[in-house]
């Protein structure tokens, strides 16, 4: 065998080895990627659960100092305007969803301009300290203060698995295309469930730890304070599926029908 033939065979073997290596890597990646994806999802879920534990601890600390012993802080807008039900504005940043003035995200009903900035969200102070200036009446040059309030990263209120609307929640969140953290300023929702009898003088009662002293909660250690917003309405996902509408009327107009 001459020298040229030997070189040709060595080159051929090298190409075969290269192709084999590429195929092997491809097969390994095909096998490993689903496992890696599952690991990432598991890590995000664990971090979300860790946040919920941190929020529950912060709620207990807040209740210990609060004259009314409330584990879920009540925002100052409660009772001051329609729709202020306390679901999200107990903690987090300034949201940009549902602008009240055209399409300007800084005019969001969940934002600093409309009284829901980070300075007004009381669990922020428990977790991060009193470091949030109140810019409600101080937008700054070109609205820079309001803008900065929408861009701060508050990890305790930001679930890493929060990728946006995932089914059966407020239609406004679905339509915005935003994450819950960006829309409301919070990836989590408080356990704020009310009951009442419809009528001209409808009075509602909390059947949750919301607006209830923690000393009046039968078993606070096993009571849900906060949940991921993506699953907030999961308990009524099948509402109406068996033909039963409601004891007192249809769902509210701003919540999707199943």
Can I get a quick summary?
The protein is mainly alpha-helical and 258 residues long.
Would you give an account of this structure?
This protein is mainly α and 258 residues long. Helices cover 34% and strands 5% of the residues. It contains five helices and four strands. The chain has helices at 3-65, 122-128, 144-151, 171-176, 180-184; strands at 188-190, 194-196, 204-206, 226-228. The strands form two sheets. Strands 1-4 form a two-stranded antiparallel sheet. Strands 2-3 form a two-stranded antiparallel sheet. The N and C termini lie far apart (78 Å). The model has no long low-confidence stretch (mean pLDDT 83).
Topology:
Elements: H1 3-65, H2 122-128, H3 144-151, H4 171-176, H5 180-184, E1 188-190, E2 194-196, E3 204-206, E4 226-228
Antiparallel strand pairs: 1-4, 2-3
How many strands, what sense, and barrel or not for the largest sheet? 2 strands, antiparallel
Q: How are the strands ordered across the major sheet?
A: 1-4
State the helix count.
Answer: 5
- The proportion of strand residues reads under 5%
**Element order: H for helix, E for strand:** HHHHHEEEE
Return the structural class.
Answer: mainly alpha
Helix content: 25-40%
SS elements, strand count: 4
- Based on CA atoms alone, the radius of gyration comes out at 26 Å
Features:
two-stranded antiparallel sheet, 4 strands, 258 residues, mainly alpha, 5 helices
